[in-house]
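A favour, since you know our structure tokens better than I do. Go ahead and set the record down below.
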Amino acid sequence: METIKDTAENQPLIEAEIIKYGYAPEHNFFHFKNWQGKGTENFLFQFNQGAIMARQEDEVWYLFSEILALPSARIKILSDFLMRCFSDKKTDRVSVEFETDFYREVLSFLKTSPWRACAVNYSLTWPIFDLAKWDPELSGGGWKKLRYQIKLFYRQHKVEIIDARDCKPDDLKKIVEAWRKKRQGDDRSYSYPYENLIDNNFAGVKFCRVFIVDGTPSTITAGWEIPNQPGSYYSAVGLHNYSCDYLGEAANVDDLSFLKKHGYKWANFGGGEEELTGFKMKFHHCRTYETHVFSIKRR
């Protein structure tokens, strides 16, 4: 196992691992970079059959997204990673997030290991949209309510859609701050990855678009293609400033229609807890899957 500390300098190496083994929506070098906050340090742990992206904050290690490896190698790599983390007596825990099937596999593995799984902190539901079935016109009775909302929004507001890179960074950060302040319920919201994304001029993003509503930048949608999943796109960012009714609905409808127009087959709208997932369901996903966030500790 090789430990690589300077992830910015080793960007080509990390991207090569992602190209070879990546499969999860968040397997994106710049997304990894943007989630490095104050007081944390990013690492790449490179193994013979894969890699792990991780970050450290005080006595806690955070595994970033899923393990970069073929399914047959993931448990072995996780075991080696845990051995490395807990070899430091100061390490309190390792925080991970895994899809349901691998989560169950990990629980089975941990039963005979020196470590134990803590209770799940929270689970996220990820909706997937079949763009072949997406109708930009929202035709039919099943879309009546949403169709009314979208038409009302465009009747009441003047809307221009531009590339986010053509907006002033301060205007985009105002959207992020307004979004953060208005979030309610149990859904977790962190603003610094989005601020980092803006400061890095949307590096690593395939598309980044902004609604200018009545002259004011009001939404940000952005994402990238999921590695080794042809035709699949991760709509990683979907923020708005809550300045008017049905703004979020309009931005999501436009995002799906835009992706369909550009030939994508599948759109992943990201993981969320109950409130956020409930909002996304109104766009008629074709399926969902879950990821589970939990900690691993010494026995």
In short: The first strand starts at residue 2 and ends at 4. The CA atoms of residues 108 and 149 lie 47 Å apart. The chain has a mean pLDDT of 95. The two ends are 24 Å apart (CA to CA).
